Amino acid sequence: MNTEYRMKTRIWIAGTIALCALAAAASRGAEGMTRLDASPGKDMKVRLEGTSTIHDWQAEGTIISGFLEVGPGFPLTPGQSVTPGKVPVHAEAFIPVRSLKSIEKDGSPYSEKMDAFMYEDLKSPPNLRIIFRVSELTLKEAPKAPDAPYVFEAKGELVVAGVTNTISFPVNVTPLGDQKFKVTGSTSLKMTDFHIKPRTLIGILSTGDDVKIQFVWPLIQKKPEGTTK
């Protein structure tokens, strides 16, 4: 066996060992994460609120799809003791643009024409979803009462009308028991930050630049593979 062959063999063995070590580390990391999936139902809601020169406007939807994968430090049971700080996270939530509908203040449908204007402003199609990808999740404070929420700060990329911006905002996480959770939050955005020009109609109605987003996102813990309960 010549020297060159022995060298290639050693390099191949070292490379194989390194790949196996990386795979094992990744597997251990994945095993330490808990997955929560969106749980559709009557409690799921997203609401947009804005202003115009004539009256305020609002739109609502009942679809927030996606998942939340969290590591140690995230409360999985009501009243769980956790320490403030960053929590390992991998998460994505998305809202189908055309699931949003304009409504009156009492919640009744407002106008299909206004819906069409909204979809056009959000450039859908081709941008069919509003997407939020979480890159950081930091527990700011533990609950002050047994039934109070855990207060987190979420940071990530928000994609609206095909434009991506980094944002952060507070979110409240409430473990409900029975592997169910409620995540709520709100934040304010400027439409122009996403290259959306405030709309003007008939020269008398102009929408404001600021939009408030509020959401209620029910989640349920994913069951380990192979279990039936």
Topology:
Blueprint: H1 3-31, E1 34-38, E2 45-52, E3 57-61, E4 65-70, E5 85-87, E6 89-96, E7 101-103, H2 112-121, E8 129-141, E9 150-160, E10 163-177, E11 180-190, E12 200-201, E13 205-221
Antiparallel strand pairs: 1-4, 1-13, 2-3, 2-13, 3-7, 4-6, 5-8, 6-8, 8-9, 9-10, 10-11, 11-13, 12-13
Average residue pLDDT: 87
Terminal-residue CA separation: 58 Å
Helix content: 10-25%
Helix count from the secondary structure assignment: 2
Shape: globular
CATH topology assignment of the largest domain: Lipocalin
Q: Approximately how much beta-strand content do the residues carry?
A: over 45%
Label the CATH architecture of the largest domain.
Answer: Beta Barrel
The largest β sheet comes out as: 8 strands, antiparallel, barrel
Gyration radius, to the nearest Å?
Answer: 23 Å
CATH class (first level) name of the largest domain? Mainly Beta
How would you describe this protein?
The protein is an alpha+beta fold and 229 residues long. The chain folds into two domains: 1-31; 34-221, Lipocalin (Beta Barrel). It is 17% helix and 47% strand. It contains two helices and 13 strands; from the N terminus they run H-E-E-E-E-E-E-E-H-E-E-E-E-E-E. The radius of gyration is 23 Å and the shape is globular.
In short:
It is built from two helices and 13 strands; from the N terminus they run H-E-E-E-E-E-E-E-H-E-E-E-E-E-E. The protein is α+β, with helices and mostly antiparallel strands.
Any key phrases for this structure?
single chain; 229 residues; alpha+beta; Lipocalin; 8-stranded antiparallel β-barrel; 13 strands; 47% strand
